Amino acid sequence: MSTDQSLVFIVDDDPSMRESLERLLRSVGQLAHAFGSTQEFLLSERPDVPGCLILDVRLPGRSGLEFQQELAKSDIRLPIVFITGHGDVAMSVTAMKAGAIEFLTKPFRDQDLLDAVHRGIEIDRGRRAESVMLGELWQRFDSLTPREREVMALVAAGQLNKQIAAEIDLSEITVKVHRSQVMRKMQAKSLPDLVRFADRLAADTTRR
Known about the structure:
The protein is α/β, with parallel strands linked by helices. The protein folds into two domains: about 5-130, Rossmann fold, CATH 3.40.50.2300; about 145-205, Orthogonal Bundle (Arc Repressor Mutant, subunit A), CATH 1.10.10. It is about 60% helix and about 10% strand. The protein is built from nine helices and five strands. β4 (about 80-85), α4 (about 90-95) and β5 form a beta-alpha-beta unit. α6 crosses α9 and α7 (about 160-170) packs across α8.
C-alpha cells in the first residue's frame, strides 16, 4: 500500500484496539493517527491529505453512526470504515446507506481492513481531484459575461447558432463570437467538452 502522503484516522475507545490498528497500518507503510473519542478527533489538526476514518460503532456518548451523521453535516467527507464487536444487519444497512464504504465485525481479517482502507483513500483522492477540477471550472465560468453564460447554456442544451440567435435576439455572427469566447474562456477543446463542463457545474450547483 502506497501512502502517497495519505493518513488514516482511527477512533476507538479501546486502547488495545487502537494500538493494534496503528501497528497493522504502519506495518504496510501507512501513516495512522488514533483517538480515544470523537471529541479528540474533532479537536485535532488534520493535514489536508487524502485519507479515511476507521470508526468504532459503539463509543461512549454519541455512537459511531451518530458521529457519521455529524461529520456529514459538518462537510467532513472522509470515507468511513466501521468496525464493531456487536454489529447487526440493521446497523450495517444504516451505515452503508449513509455512505460508509465498509462495515467489519470483530474479529475481522487484517487484509479485509487493509483493503477497505486502501479503497477509502482512493475514493478520497478521487474526490479531492474532482474538487480541484470543479474549483477551476467555476473560476473559468466566473470569467464569462452574463451574455456568454446565456450562450453557453443554450449551446450545452444542443441549440444551433441560428436557434440561439433567434431566442436571444442577436445576429448569428454575434452568437458565433460569443460562442468562440465561451470555448476559449472555459478551455473547452470541443463541444462535448463544453457540455461535460456545463453538466458538472449544474450537478455541483444541485449538490450545494
